Amino acid sequence: MNSQCGCFEIFKCGDWREASDLATERHCALETCVDPEEIGCNRGYEFLEECPHWKGRQQQAAPGADSLDRAGVQADSKSGLHDGGRQLRLPWTGNSLGMLDLELVTACNRTALVGVVGPYNSGKTTLLTLFYLLIQHGEQLSTGTFAGSWSLVGWENLAAKLRWRRGEGGPKFPPHTSRTAGRQPGLLHMALRDRTNIRHDFLLTDPPGEWFTVWAQKELTEGAEGARWVQQYADRFLFLVDREALATKERGKERDALRDLARRLSTGLRGRPVAVVWTKSDIPILPTIEQDLQDCFGVEFPNHSEFRVRVRFGNETRNEVEEPCLRLMQWAFAPDQKPRQTAPTLPICDESDLFLAYRGQGSHL
Amino acid sequence: MSADPRSTSLLIVGGTKAGKTHYGGQLLRRLEAKKSRLRILGAPSDLTPFQEVLDRLAIGRSAPHTPTSFYRESVWHVRSEDQDYQTQLVWPDYGGEQIEDIVRKRQVDERWVQRIRESSGWLFFVRLSTISVPEDVLVRPRVLERMRSGSEDASSQTEGTLAEQERIGPAEESDRPDVALASRLTLSTQAGLVELLQALLFVKQVGSNAQLRQPPLVVVLSCWDEIATTKGNSAWDDPATVLNKRLPLLSQFIESTWEEDRVEVMGLSALGKTLADDVSDEAFMDNGPERQGWCVCKGGTQSDDLTLPVIMLMEKTGRES
């Protein structure tokens, strides 16, 4: 996996090179150490120079003895940071997370994966951007307050598109997330802490719509691996319905495509919750088309929730823009309500061995 | 955390122009005057690290920017007036770029690793007046034609209305050079401050699954006099409320990461006013720097005791391992 661009291993991007090439360039003998110069040593050494596999430039070990014997007032060497001293690499780039980066999140907490599913131009990236902007504006979710993110750069890259910037014009919609775009699809991370001080970690997918278009047509086709991955591993789904597409001359085709996609997702859904999100909700569509789709969703996603969201173009009220999006966020960032599987009852083979027979406090032994 | 249990090594964290140097100089003078709650025992063995700022303030001028690669620390033996303990206070002065580089380069120099790990409490400087939260489509909408055929169309539409944007007013960033400095981070400044705290916690090897008790954190909203916050009959706005209003993402992150009694937000005006670097402020000079400056405590109460942020942090530090 190329951790720098965050692309999925199964989708080697244009910048993909074999790990062995990268290891050579980076002076590391260990092929599994994907990017030591950027995110540090995967063997756990704080400084690359300590790792026996590191064949890099021999740097002057500068533990800073000059600066740390505190006797009154001392001065560091004025060379400061950039005198070849050893550097500890932060193990995350801040960008969208790739597969290997997930250890940062999943190693210490149960993480909910929110799969964002929708065809091309359905507003997936814009929706994620709105989530971040609302959090950044200090909007409080009843499910928790912002407790950090390992992908702040990724969020900021998205948010930049909906901000005003000097000399760059006003906000514009985030660019289309294509399979060949420079910005590779990855996972965005958000942590919230609830009122009982429990931290909840969430990962949201930001995939290209083409994945789902080809996947809806043929499940096992090439180019749909990412869509299958999202379907297999997501804990809950946001199924986006683009009202703008349903208002065009192609509306009949779009309706069919959405129904195909809904049927594909529902196959193997295994009861996982789905929120149907009507994006660009200000655009009117024919009632028959809306009803057809609602009928389909009712069959394919029993007990689904429904939301209608839009962005602000003029003087729309908070009730029209922020509130619906916040309600969707409450749903998406709700703590995991899936009943935990109870631990299996293990038979006791030797009751005379108290250690092996112990089944926890309150058990019969 | 420090090698010497009686030594309190405070990590003074702040980017460029955050007010660390001015506060260091003013704090030293307050400690020496022995009229504040925290007092120095004897005289500092060496005033060199703060001599320049002391000299500049003595003639009513601001101190120059601390050089980028500069790092010095001074050890002061101090005693709290109302508590029966003495301690060593290790006070640094350094170029704020070293802190900004942690987020920008995503690497931490080994010496900073050591400083962070030895620190027993963090004094986190945030100069609100230099940080602008960018406006976005939620707060300042614009009429956009919907994008149907990719981002190129959207770009051309946007460029076509650039004149309109200029007419509406300035964009997110200020013309002030110090604001431009504060915006150097690749992230927006607010997100950069969150990332900095996350990086410091990682280096300190502190997990944040549970809320933190160590290291305690005092957020110092520096140059408070520059913030357009109202002062009522006798009190300013509550500093924590001001932080939450101005930088909600940072405020929420701090609130949810630290236990309530292990974090404090204070306002600070180390000089009480803004000084120029080329023209002396006669009134400031005549009154003497030691009579200038104040801080704003919880609830908005103003106090002339500039040692309060340090006392606040020391009280939360080291008494509980």
Could you explain how this protein is built, in words?
The complex is a heterodimer of chains A (365) and B (321). By secondary structure, chain A is of the alpha/beta class. Chain A has 2 domains: 91 residues, no CATH class; 233 residues, Rossmann fold, CATH 3.40.50. Helices cover 28% and strands 13% of the residues of chain A. Chain A has 12 helices and 9 strands. Chain A has a 7-stranded mixed sheet with strand order 4-5-6-3-7-8-9, sandwiched between helices. In chain A, strand 5 and strand 6 form a beta hairpin. The radius of gyration of chain A is 25 Å and the shape is globular. Chain A starts with 18 loop residues before the first helix and ends in an 8-residue tail after the last helix. In chain B, a hairpin with a 5-residue loop joins strand 9 and strand 10. Chain B has one domain: Rossmann fold. Chain B has 321 residues and is α/β, with parallel strands linked by helices. The longest helix of chain B is centred in the middle third of the chain and has 15 residues. Chain B is built from 12 helices and 10 strands. In chain B, helix 1 packs across helix 2, helix 3 crosses helix 8 and helix 8 runs parallel beside helix 10. The interface between A and B is large, with 80 and 85 residues. Strand 1 of chain A pairs antiparallel with strand 3 of chain B, so a sheet runs across the interface.
Low-confidence stretches of chain B: 147-185
Mean pLDDT of chain A equals: 79
Shape of chain A: globular
* Whole-number tally of structural domains of chain B: 1
CATH architectural name of chain B? 3-Layer(aba) Sandwich
> Given this structure, which CATH class of chain B is correct?
Alpha Beta
What's the name of the CATH homologous superfamily of chain B? P-loop containing nucleotide triphosphate hydrolases
**Any idea what the radius of gyration of chain B is?**
21 Å
Query: What is the fold named in CATH at topology level of the largest domain in chain A?
Result: Rossmann fold
DSSP E strands of chain B, number: 10
Annotated CATH architecture of the largest domain in chain A: 3-Layer(aba) Sandwich
| Count of alpha and pi helical runs of chain B | 12
Strand order of the largest sheet of chain A: 4-5-6-3-7-8-9
Annotated CATH homologous superfamily of the largest domain in chain A: P-loop containing nucleotide triphosphate hydrolases
Largest sheet of chain A: 7 strands, mixed
Q: How many helices of chain A does DSSP assign?
A: 12
Oligomer: heterodimer
Give, in order, the helices and strands of chain A.
HHHEEHEHEHEEHHEHEHEHH
Structural class by sheet pairing and helices of chain B: alpha/beta
